[in-house]
Structure formats: structure tokens, C-alpha cells
Design brief:
The protein is α+β, with helices and mostly antiparallel strands and 820 residues long. The chain contains 16 helices and 45 strands. β41 and β42 form a beta hairpin.
């Protein structure tokens, strides 16, 4: 009897399917939609949103959940799914307007005996199953981004059985579209794929799984280290390049050539016109009629070297505007930079047309484009473009949906602190600029729009001034906050609006300066993605630091930097001394969005943490502890509990960004201690350290300790569990894991010459991190250094340390040493 090519053991997932390309269609494009009568809670929380479904999802569920799908509708299955270490087949992605996406999957199951075999089917979306061309299951919950499960029995005949699966989902912004299919029977089953050479697939999967893409790329060359030989038959390489973030990059199709069977290094050449930025590469590998795809992120780096030194803020602003006008990402603020500099080219027309398309379609994140468009209308109306195009600008402004209480059918996100600010800013400024015009979505006059937006802005200001930004120190989202704040500061006619906007800009500048380390916007962050953590030099917040204080780089990011540069704003004087600390050290404390932030900084290294932040709960994108050295932007490390199985995924939290389970954490000056209590059923019973060895001058590893040095700064990382270096796969050379449900990690940073480092190493050779009576304890041969319990009580050398009661949203800063 045919038993297939692979064995499916009990309690394991099916992950290999023949898969169709997607069928994608705009959904409910011509529905008028509805207005939502929903109160806004201005006490923001990361990951929170509306409790009820969007209008388009309710219509989608009504139309799709009970419909009949025929086998004749099936799309040809042209490639094989590849999941790496994950047990889930994922087609997750991002769509800025509602899209109906469908996939078809197929495989063959082999049973030694006929019978009913139990499976658990889990999906984000909806699934229909046929076994041997007979419909056997339909499961269509269509709950957005929430995996739902059902139990089912597959009626298998003895021998080969063909299983066909139809998956579909409505894509709204970031959408998890996935299938997990776990066999729960007692006897193994066989698995095969139709018209697929199993030996070739095994070779190809081994080849893909052993790839280690380098996280950074230079000169448009992506290097992939190969841990396994390519299949003996030729492997053709092709794929797509996608932008990561809201930078409006147009995907590129690329032919990467052929992989050689015995190579140890694979180099992919990116198109010459692609500039430095974060990209996702979807690499398709085809061999002897078998194709699989593997996706990974890469940070294409700029040429080395800092920006030309300038002591003048105005000069740095002009240079940044010019750099953005020539090299910026495809964002509306780049168009503003072109107009400000008088460097308009044919690209300016395309940028404006793309902007108007996004706004007219009410794409998600179009609010980030509308605010700078209003600035352009105010300052440059009538310039460069023909009158007919300026009339389109006016129509787009008047036809926009400015808040959820206005009629619409879209997937725009209103509920985060940055989107809320941008929507209110756009409504306020549009009403101010067109006071007597009719705004179509609301049916209100411009003056009515302005008055309503002013009340909403007051509520937003009240909450943020009192509680701080929940997305504290965020490399991706402070620049988005600045979109609204700089527009209000520069363009608002009401003095109170300008003054409150300036107050918050001052606060953000002061807080950013505390974390700015030699050109890099570093530090703990309330919300961040892997791409920013792994390439801080590419973030817009780092470019902000270079304009505000110097010492860094200009880059292509331009959500709001041109607004800063086109304004008359000057950062607080104190921020300059924090950012450019040249001697001694500083300590700082502040509150932000429910987080208590501690900073310790000296010229060679900075350590910062968000302490006692919901320990034991599921995290989102909070980056709780960060160490950044001054010698190189890659010289940094952190520890977290992963939220998914591999880097570069779609989850929040992800592999490196955020925490699946949040730790208890305390920092006192240059020491930090993290303490995890992971639940018994966690998918990832380990925590891990990101430590890129190549970025440091010295890395000394001991069974439970790592010591590192970069320039005149150094650090120790100690763990209560043995450290296992990862030597294969994507993170080889950059990752250490600690397998333990209850685990503690200790960090201490310092600075000094060779003698100081030698003394530090000698002291830390006896470092012991342990867990005693639900407490994390750190000691050396000289005595106890630090102790932390699950409630957050912390002792340093026997003395209790607490976060200062007086600390608020504005920082308390103290100096020591020569910095005083």
C-alpha cells in the first residue's frame, strides 16, 4: 500500500501543501458605508482598538460565511508552502483598502485503514475542506487577526486521499491570514504532494532552511550565508522586493539568477535604483518543477560616514531638506521638501498624484499624507503644478473622511495616539483653510469642522500632557506624532493650539535627546518593529537627532522631518547637553503612557528601561530594555521573550520586538535586572539575547555570562540559566537562548580604559544570577549586587531602590562625575 513520502505523527501539524497564488479583489469598493457613533478614549493603549467589527467586515461575513464555493472555482496550485520552524501556514500581509483574498491548498494523506481521523483546524479567516472531492468541513468565523479553532473528523479511505482546502479572508490593514492543521489521532499517517518530486522538495527545503541572510546589506548586494548545499539540479531564484513601513514603495519583480550547488555564499543583486531603506524580500526558489518561497527582511544601508559637520541648526535644516528632496522616500513630505528647496522635478508630479490617489481612496495611513498636503496648500498653492491639478488637491481635501463619525467604508485606523492626532490636525487645518466650503463626508462647513476638531485636539492634548505618550521614545512613531505637532505649531491660527503643540514638541525633543547616542535614536521604546531595532541608523528619529544636535546621518525617511526643517522651531537648550554628553554620566527618570522610564548614559554607552510594566501579561511592541554603544550603530543588545517562531514575521509581538510575556524589570543607574515567569503552556519556553558579535571589539562568553567591549565602554550580561549560542539559521552569531520558564537576566554597563575593563572582567568572572524564593538575585564573590521580587521590590547591595515619586512626564535629570 502507498504510504506517501513523509510521516505525519500524532499531535503534529501539516505544513507542506501545494498552494495556489492569491486571488485578490477589492471588496465593497462602491458601498457608501456608515458613520460610527463611538466614543473615543484618549487614554491610549498599545494594541487596543474598537470592540466592534468594521462595516466592511460585517458585510463580508454576511456575504461570504454561508456562500457555496465550488471545486470548479479552484485555482491551480503552483508552489509548495514553506513554514520554517513554524507550525502555521501564513499568507499574512498588509492592504490599505479592503481586499478579498483567496487561496487554495492541496495535499495527499495516506491511511493504512479506512476510518475517521481527528484534526484540529485553526484559522484566521475562513476554511472549506474537501476530501476525495467530497465536502467535509466548513469553518468561517472571519474574526480579524484572531485565530479560531474547531475539531473535525476526516473520513479517510485506506490508501491515498486527496485533501483540498479553500482559504479566504478580508484584508484590513495588517491582516493575519493563516492555517494551522494539527493531527490528533493515535496512529501515524502518510503525506505526499500531488505531482511533486519529494526528494527535490526535501533538498530545496533543507537549502532554504539553512539560509542565513545577513541583516544588513551594502552596495545593493544582499548576502546569504548557506548552511546546506543547493540541490544538485539547478535552482532558479526570483522574487519580489517590498518596502517595509509607510513609505509607499512600489514592489519590484526581480530575477536573481541561479544558485550553484556547492556555494557557501549567495549574493542577491538588488536593482540599482533602490535606495537605502528597510525591505522585505520574497525569494522564490524553483528546482525541477518544485517551487517554494521564503521571506526575510533586509536593511539596505547607506554609505558609511557621518553627515557633514555643521554647528548651525538652520544649516542642518537646509541640508536635510535638500537631501530629502533628492533622495527621500516616496512620501508627501518629500514633495514639501522639493517645493521648499525649489528642487521640483518630474518626480514632483508623480508624488502629488500618488498622494491624491491615497487620500481619495481613503487608504489606511492617508492621514499621514493629508497633513503635509495641507501644509503644501497653505504655503505653495499655485506653484509648479497646473491649475487643474491644484483643483484636484482642493477636491481631495474637501472629500476626505476626517473622523469615524463621518460616513465611509474604509479600513483607516483612528484609535492610536498618532493616528488620532493626525486626523484631528487634518480636520482642524482643513476647516481653518476652507471655512465656508462644504465637506462632503460630514456635510459640515469648514468652520464647523475646525470647531469640532479644536475640541477633539483639546482632549488629545489633555490626555497626552497628563499621561505621556504610550508609544514612548518610538523610532517609528515619534516622527508620526511630529506630523501633527509641527503642522499645528506652524500653521494653526489659534494661539493655544500652537502653544500646546510646541510644549509637546519640546517634551519629545528632551526625551529623545536622553536616548540619542552618537547619531542613533536608541533606548527603550513603547512601540517598535524589528526593522528599527536592527538598523537604527535608518530611522527617521535618528535623522531628527542629526538635524537637532548633529553627530549623525541624514537618511531617506521623511514622514515629518521636512516639516521640522521648514518650521522656525528650535529645540530646548537642555536637549543639546543631553544629546551630546561628552563627559561624566547622567541619570534620568520620566513617566510615559503608563510606563516608568529609567535612563543611564555616558559618552560611550547608554542603558534604558521601562520598569515594572505589566509583568506576566502578554506584550505588544514594547521594547523594555536597550543598551546602545557609541562606536557603531550595530553595537547594541537587548533581551526579550519572543512572540513568534522566526525573525521577520507579522506578529505583534514578533521574534525580536516586544515580549510574548512581559518580565518584571528594574533598572538602577547602570544596572538592570529582568525576571520572567513564563506559563507552563507557552509556545516558546525560552528567552533570548540579541548580541551581534561582529559589532563589538571583544566578546567573552562563559556558560551563563557574556562580556562585551566597544571602544571605551563595556557590559556584562548574566543569566540564571545556561546560555546556548545559536549557530545555524538566520540568527547564527547574533543570538543566545536560555531554556527556562523562570529565568532572570542581569545587565551592567561601564566605561573606562583597558585597565578598567580588565578589572570589570575579573569582578564579573564570579557573577551568579539565580532565582530564590520567587526572587531574582545577582551576586559576585564580593557580595550581593541586586535583588528583585515579582512585585517589583528591588534592593541594590541591600538598599531598597524605587522609581522616584516625583517623576512625571517631564524628565528628572541628574548628573555625576565631570558632567556636573
Amino acid at each position: 500500500m502507498d504510504i506517501g513520502n513523509w510521516v505525519l505523527e500524532p499531535n503534529t501539524a501539516l505544513t507542506r501543501f501545494c498552494v495556489s497564488p492569491p486571488r485578490e479583489e477589492r471588496f465593497a469598493e462602491f458601498f457608501a458605508g456608515e458613520a460610527m457613533d463611538m466614543a473615543m478614549d484618549y487614554r491610549f493603549q498599545n494594541g487596543s482598538g474598537p470592540q466592534e467589527d468594521a462595516f466592511c467586515r460585517r458585510i463580508f461575513r454576511q456575504q461570504m460565511a454561508e456562500r457555496t464555493v465550488e471545486l470548479s472555482e479552484a485555482i491551480a496550485r503552483t508552489h509548495v508552502s514553506y513554514t520554517g520552524e513554524s507550525d502555521t501556514v501564513s499568507f499574512s500581509s498588509f492592504q490599505r483598502v479592503p481586499f478579498h483574498v483567496q487561496r487554495w491548498l492541496e495535499l495527499e494523506l495516506h491511511a493504512t485503514e479506512a476510518g475517521s481521523y481527528p484534526f484540529q483546524l485553526s484559522t484566521c479567516g475562513g476554511a472549506r475542506l474537501w476530501c476525495n472531492e467530497q465536502a467535509v468541513a466548513k469553518f468561517t468565523p472571519f474574526s480579524r487577526n484572531k485565530m479560531q479553532s474547531c475539531e473535525l473528523m476526516l473520513p479517510l479511505q485506506a490508501g491515498k486521499n486527496t485533501l483540498l482546502i479553500h482559504l479566504e479572508e478580508l484584508f484590513e490593514r495588517d491582516t493575519v491570514f493563516a492555517l494551522r492543521f494539527i493531527y490528533q489521532g493515535c496512529v501515524p499517517l502518510g503525506v505526499s504532494l500531488p505531482q511533486t518530486d519529494a526528494a527535490v522538495l526535501d533538498e530545496l527545503s533543507l537549502f532554504a532552511g539553512a539560509m542565513r541572510p545577513e541583516l544588513t546589506a551594502r552596495d545593493n548586494q544582499v548576502r546569504i550565508r548557506l548552511g546546506a548545499n543547493a540541490p544538485t539540479q539547478p535552482v532558479s531564484l526570483s522574487g519580489e522586493i517590498h518596502g517595509m513601513g509607510n513609505d509607499n514603495f512600489t514592489p519590484r519583480q526581480v530575477d536573481f539568477g541561479t544558485a550553484t550547488p556547492d556555494g557557501q555564499l549567495l549574493t542577491l543583486s538588488l536593482p540599482a535604483e533602490i535606495g537605502s531603506a528597510h525591505y522585505q524580500i520574497v525569494l522564490r526558489m524553483s528546482c525541477a518543477g518544485v517551487s517554494i518561497t521564503r521571506s526575510f527582511g533586509v536593511n539596505l544601508m547607506p554609505s558609511p560616514g557621518h553627515a557633514e559637520h555643521s554647528t548651525s541648526l538652520d544649516e542642518r535644516k537646509l541640508k536635510a531638506l535638500s537631501h530629502t528632496a533628492r533622495y527621500g522616500m516616496e512620501r508627501t513630505s518629500r514633495l514639501l521638501a522639493m517645493l521648499q528647496c525649489g528642487e521640483t522635478t518630474a518626480e514632483a508630479d508623480r508624488l502629488l498624484l500618488d498622494t491624491l490617489k491615497r487620500i481619495s481612496a481613503r487608504e489606511d495611513c492617508s492621514d499621514f499624507s493629508l497633513v503635509p498636503l495641507l501644509w503644501i496648500w497653505r504655503e505653495h498653492n499655485g506653484e509648479h503644478f497646473p491649475a487643474a491639478l491644484w483643483r484636484r488637491v482642493r477636491s481631495s481635501i474637501l472629500g476626505y473622511r476626517y473622523w469615524m463619525d463621518e460616513q465611509g467604508n474604509d479600513v483607516m485606523w483612528f484609535w492610536s495616539e498618532n493616528h488620532t492626532l493626525c486626523f484631528h490636525t487634518a480636520q482642524y487645518l482643513a476647516g481653518q483653510m476652507f471655512p465656508d466650503e462644504l465637506f462632503l463626508a460630514s456635510g459640515r462647513s469648514g468652520e464647523e469642522q475646525r470647531a469640532i476638531a479644536a475640541l477633539r485636539l483639546a482632549q488629545w492634548f489633555d490626555a497626552i500632557e497628563l499621561y505621556g505618550f504610550v508609544e514612548w521614545n518610538s523610532a517609528p512613531y515619534y516622527p508620526v506624532d511630529y506630523i501633527g505637532l509641527f503642522a499645528l505649531y506652524q500653521l494653526a491660527e489659534d494661539a493655544w493650539v500652537r502653544q500646546r503643540a510646541k510644549g509637546l514638541i519640546d517634551r519629545l525633543m528632551l526625551l529623545s535627546s536622553l536616548h540619542y547616542q552618537d547619531g542613533i535614536a536608541a533606548g527603550t521604546m513603547g512601540r517598535v518593529y524589528e526593522k528599527e531595532l536592527l538598523a537604527g541608523v535608518l530611522t527617521e528619529l535618528s535623522a531628527y537627532g542629526n538635524v537637532a544636535w548633529g553627530g549623525g546621518w541624514y537618511n531617506r525617511k521623511c514622514a515629518s522631518l521636512p516639516l521640522f526643517c521648514a518650521s522656525d522651531y528650535q529645540p530646548p537648550v537642555a536637549a543639546d547637553s543631553y544629546a551630546r554628553l561628552s563627559q561624566g554620566s547622567l541619570s534620568a527618570f520620566y513617566q510615559a503612557g503608563g510606563g516608568n522610564i529609567v535612563v543611564w548614559k555616558e559618552p560611550g554607552v547608554s542603558l534604558s528601561s521601562c520598569i515594572n510594566h505589566h509583568p506576566g501579561q502578554r506584550g505588544h511592541q514594547q521594547h523594555l530594555m536597550d543598551v546602545q554603544f557609541a562606536t557603531h550603530h550595530d553595537a547594541k543588545f537587548w533581551v526579550n521573550h519572543p512572540g513568534e517562531a522566526e525573525p521577520g514575521g507579522e506578529q505583534r509581538p514578533s521574534y525580536w520586538s516586544g515580549n510574548g510575556v512581559l518580565p518584571q524589570l528594574m533598572q538602577v543607574e547602570n544596572r538592570a535586572l529582568q525576571f520572567w515567569q513564563l506559563p507552563a503552556n507557552t509556545a516558546f519556553p525560552w528567552t533570548h539575547l540579541y548580541l551581534p558579535a561582529d559589532a563589538f571589539e571583544q566578546v567573552i562568553t562563559l556558560p551563563r555570562t557574556c562580556l562585551v567591549r566597544a571602544g571605551n565602554a563595556f557590559a556584562v550580561i548574566g543569566c540564571s540559566a545556561p546560555l546556548n549560542a545559536v549557530t545555524t539559521g538566520m540568527t547564527a552569531g547574533n543570538e543566545y537562548r536560555a531554556q527556562a520558564h523562570h529565568v532572570a537576566w542581569f545587565t551592567e554597563v561601564g566605561h573606562g580604559d583597558d585597565a578598567a575593563f580588565a578589572a570589570f572582567c575579573q569582578r564579573m568572572e564570579t557573577l551568579v544570577v539565580s532565582i530564590e524564593d520567587q526572587q531574582a538575585v545577582v551576586s559576585t564573590a564580593q557580595g550581593e549586587l541586586m535583588r528583585l521580587d515579582w512585585q517589583g521590590k528591588c534592593l541594590i547591595e541591600g538598599v531598597v531602590h524605587r522609581f522616584p515619586d516625583a517623576a512625571g512626564c517631564d524628565p528628572i535629570v541628574t548628573w555625576s562625575g565631570e558632567a556636573q
